[in-house]
Structure formats: C-alpha cells, structure tokens
C-alpha cells in the first residue's frame, strides 16, 4: 500500500502482506539524507491532505492550512484517516522525529478538545495518537494538556486524576 511505503513500521499494519521493517533498515534509512528528505516530503504531503502546514522543520511546529475547513470535514467524515495518522505518528518516532510526534498530537488535541473542530477524531487522539509519543515526559505533558481541556474533566480516563492534579 501507498502509506506503508511512505511510512514504514517495525510492526504489521492493515496490509499483512507488507513486511515490517527491521531495526537495521530503520538505522540505514535514518543515515540516508535522500531517504529522510523523501520522508519529510511525504509527511508534508500528508499534512497538506489533512489541512495542516508544517511551519518549522527544525521544531515540527504546525498550523492550520488555508484549506483546513474542507480538509477537516474530510477528517471528520472518514475514520480510516485516524489509522493513517496513527501510522504516521509511529513512523515519526521510528525515524527520529519525536518532536514532530509531540506537535502533531498536540495539534489534534487542540483541534478536538479546545477548538472542537474535529469531534470524530477525539477518541483516536486520546486512545491512540497520545500513546505513540515515545518520550514518557512529553507524553505525560500531553496527557495533562488533554485532561485540562477535556469536558467533563471527571470523565477523563487516560491518566490517574490524583497524579494529573499534582502534575508540575
């Protein structure tokens, strides 16, 4: 499949014929400027499809694209996009773009919980996107951010409330 070639993983996806990557292949990819440039182009292409722009290649900072409204309608209508986003997030981690993971997850948490523009992506953002973030510390920050903006807060089940209250 198209997405498997652009965003390969060390695990089986929906296409069981596709062979998962080995650790050696990932290391070889990460050392190749050509492969990493292509990977970044693919990431930007997919972001564009979802109505998102990569503002800063150093940090991974994102913003809504001009066409965000129509693209978000597509995201809300077709839940298969959530699987693709999960795959992209996992691949960002494999390829050493952990900061990009954080920005993409925070983008979706903001759009689902704060702006409420992507109601049909909210469960995936909380159940899957959050837990692709490799850095335990950054993941905790994102869970805390989600808890702060989740309504009603008493129904938040993605982290222990006592720890969330004491966080920082």
From TrEMBL:
Mind telling me which InterPro entries this protein's record contains? OGF_rcpt (IPR006757), OGFr (IPR039574)
Q: Which residues form the Opioid growth factor receptor (OGFr) conserved domain?
A: 3-164
The entry's cellular-component GO terms read: membrane
Q: Which GO terms describe its molecular function?
A: opioid growth factor receptor activity
Lineage top rank: taxon: Eukaryota
Question: Which chain positions lie within coiled-coil regions?
Answer: none
- Its family? Belongs to the opioid growth factor receptor family.
Protein name, entry field: OGFR factor
What is the organism field in this record? Hypocryptadius cinnamomeus
């Amino acid at each position: 499949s198209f997405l498997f070639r652009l965003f390969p993983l060390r695990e089986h996806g929906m296409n069981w014929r596709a062979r998962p990557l080995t650790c050696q292949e990932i290391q070889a990819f990460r050392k190749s400027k050509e492969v990493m440039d292509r990977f970044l182009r693919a990431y930007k292409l997919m972001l564009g499809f979802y109505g998102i722009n990569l503002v800063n290649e150093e940090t991974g900072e994102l913003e809504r694209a001009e066409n965000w409204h129509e693209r978000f309608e597509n995201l809300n209508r077709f839940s298969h996009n959530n699987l693709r986003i999960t795959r992209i997030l996992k691949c960002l981690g494999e390829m050493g773009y952990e900061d990009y993971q954080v920005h993409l997850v925070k983008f979706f948490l903001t759009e689902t919980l704060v702006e409420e523009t992507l109601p049909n992506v909210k469960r995936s953002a909380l159940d899957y996107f959050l837990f692709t973030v490799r850095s335990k510390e950054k993941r905790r920050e994102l869970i805390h951010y989600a808890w702060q903006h989740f309504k009603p807060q008493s129904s938040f089940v993605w982290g222990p409330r006592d720890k969330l209250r004491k966080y920082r």
